[in-house]
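Data availability (excerpt). The following record was deposited with the supplementary files.
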Amino acid sequence: MSYPTAGFERAGAPTGAGSGFVVQRALAIGGQLLRVVFSVEPRHSSTAGLDDARNAANYQVTIVTGTGHALHSVAVKPIIVTYPAYGLFAAGECGCDLQLDRNMVVGMSYQVTVSPAVKSFDGEAIGTPYSATFVGAARPPAARKLRRKIGLVDLASDPFTGGPIIDSSGDWASHEGLDGTQKRVWRIAFTGLGKFIWLPNFGLKYDIKKPATLSILTGLRTDMRQQMAQQPDIVASETSASMNQLGYLALTLKGRTKTGEAFDSTAKFGPNGDIVL
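Predicted structure:
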């Protein structure tokens, strides 16, 4: 039987045979990152401790099959991995992530051997198996998750009758897309200029529930079209306003959104302020 050299000699039969503190397995979790899994928690308080699993000098990586550059351990990550985690299959197992000086060759067979000086957290010497074979792997490519593009979202309510709209879950529904766009432009028509103190230019100077002259209607159309054009999701807008001899005002709003959707809606207002759809 042969044993590793260069400070890893076992002097005959492994001195830690029969110990409950052993190396369970090893697996590459990145191009230069190796996870060594112990049966129980090892000592991990110092990178300079002779019996400490945080000491990178206590690991030796060799090539089992194939030809390539020798790998050297340069550091051990300070956080000890505990169950449940990748590569840990049972409660009590702990892993140390070993940083190597170069990338492993994908598919090549390697072996990592732990120094006999390493002890468990309770002071038990490591026993057999104190080494494990593993296969080189590449670091998984970092992929950016596609996030759903969030547009303009509003709490759902009827712009003409008011009041919230409740969905099937019993919660306040949301308005987005074309429905939300139409509600926002009609909100402009129903709001007097300056009624929202944080939006001083929002709303109309003219009260659409009052009689109007031809010049007032012309200004209403222009003002409404300009404010519609200021909406971030509208690329084209058109308005029309007329009032019959009985004092009924008809206001039509047309527009097209950036997504190519079009809307065309009309509301009529009676002389007493009622909305006639």
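Summary of structural features: Residues 1-16 have pLDDT under 50 and may be disordered.
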